[in-house]
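Hey, can you fold this one?
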Amino acid sequence: MINSEVHVYNPADWSKGVIDKLRVEGLAAVAPSGGTYPSLAVFVGEKNVRNISSDDLALNFINCTQGSPAKITIYNLAALSLPPSCFKSFYKADKCVMKWNNAGSQVLALTSTDVDKSNKNYYGESNLYLLSAAGNFDCRVALGKHISDVISQLIIWFNRQRGSNS
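Sure. Predicted structure:
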């Protein structure tokens, strides 16, 4: 990942150099999958509304844009120029850690913020999402109140995926 661009190399032939590129504005995290049909999950964090001064109020009322949600987009690694196979957008996400199952068919995305919605709690918020690389399934996974619950859920999911190709 270089700035807002992902550079793809062929590990079997490094001498060819960069064989493909994907440019994504605001790119914050990347996770390539393994498996028979490798995919690339990219994360762009939430963009908040900038503060509007009273001088700019009339102009910004006309061109009003609210904050942009965070998003995870999944691409076929062999064909980055094609439309993505999966797209999920959501709020309350500045950071993301993504982990693929061994088959490369599903990715878990743990998103977080440093500060909660009230802007008073510095413990932030976390959410967990499960997305299918094929784009036929995505959901928010209910979490407990403690990070140990998140870790337990991740361990259970990865252990189930070890012996499975789904």
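The chain has two helices and ten strands. Let me know if you want another pass with a different chain boundary.
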